Amino acid sequence: LAFIAYPKAVTMMPFPTVWAVLFFVMLLLLGLDSQFVEVEGQITSLVDLYPSFLRKGYRREIFIAIICSISYLLGLTMVTKGGMYVFQLFDYYAASGVCLLWVAFFECTAVAWVYGADNFYDAVEDMIGYRPNPWMKWSWSYITPTLCMGCFVFSLVKYKPLTYNKVYEYPDGAIGLGWT
Question: Where do the annotations place Na(+) binding (predicted)?
Fold first, then answer.
């Protein structure tokens, strides 16, 4: 939509070049903002995990530089001659619904059964100031994990190995890397 429909619509507006530049600058800034949020989420969680080590001196800043450098090097593999193959591998396995379903299942299980649904329910009440609907405990404990696991199983049943342009089949090592 952003690269097909909108540019076509912009050509029909007065001063189409100005609007096109503004639109694509906006897309660039949205992408950068998404990257900032992603990196900040990683950094904050790791700094909170190891505060005695990462909150001394400039260690947090050095840690951010290391994380950004590693991310840059991983992203650099996607702009090489075979980068489209690497991008497809990341897109198919890492950013797919299967991975997110797996993570959501274990997050709900950890919250409801390890931390405890009642403890979480009380913590949410403390944060928002009122008791949430009681069905939320059922959702955290049973409904969401069941739906996530069911969708995950169905996606495994319908699984087809990754191919590129319906011609190139990825080797077993690449598929194994994708699953890990």
Answer: 30, 33-34
Q: Would you state the structure tokens that stand for residue 40, as one six-digit string?
A: 């900040």
Yes or no: say if 112 and 135 are a contact pair by the CB < 8 Å rule: no
Tell me: is residue 52 an annotated ligand-binding position. no
Check whether 118 is labelled as a binding-site residue.
Answer: no
d(CA 7, CA 175): 36
Q: Is 34 annotated as a binding residue?
A: yes
Rg of the chain over all Cα atoms, to the nearest angstrom: 22
Answer yes or no: pTM beyond 0.85. no
List the structure tokens of 62: 């050095």
Two tokens at 58? 């400039």
**Which residue, among 147, 148, 120, 149, has the nearest Cα to 136 in the 3D structure?**
120
Q: Are 102 and 152 in contact (CB under 8 A)?
A: yes
Number of Cβ within a 10 Å radius of residue 129: 7
Q: What's the one-letter identity of residue 30?
A: L
Low-confidence ranges of the chain (pLDDT < 70): 1
Interval 32-85: pLDDT, tens? 999 899 899 989 999 999 999 988 889 999 999 999 999 999 899 999 998 888
